[in-house]
Amino acid sequence: MIRVLVVDDSLTVRKRLVDVLGSDRELEVVGEAGDGPEAIELCGRLRPDVMTLDMMLPTMNGLAVTEHVMAFFPTPIVIVSSSTNRGDLFKTYDALAAGAVEVLDKPGATEPADDWERRLVALVKLVSRIKVVTHPRGRLSLHRRSLAPGTRPEAQPAPPPRSQSTYELVAIGTSTGGPNALVDVLRRLPETFPLPILIVIHIGRPFAVGFAEWLAGQSQLRVSIAVDGDPLPRRGRPGVLIAPPDVHLVVRNRVLRLTSDPERHSCRPSVDVLFESIARELGAAAIACVLTGMGRDGAEGLCAIHRAGGMTIAQDETSSVVFGMPREAIALGAARRVLALGEIGRALLHLATE
Question: How far apart are CA 67 and CA 134, in angstroms?
Answer without folding.
Answer: 10
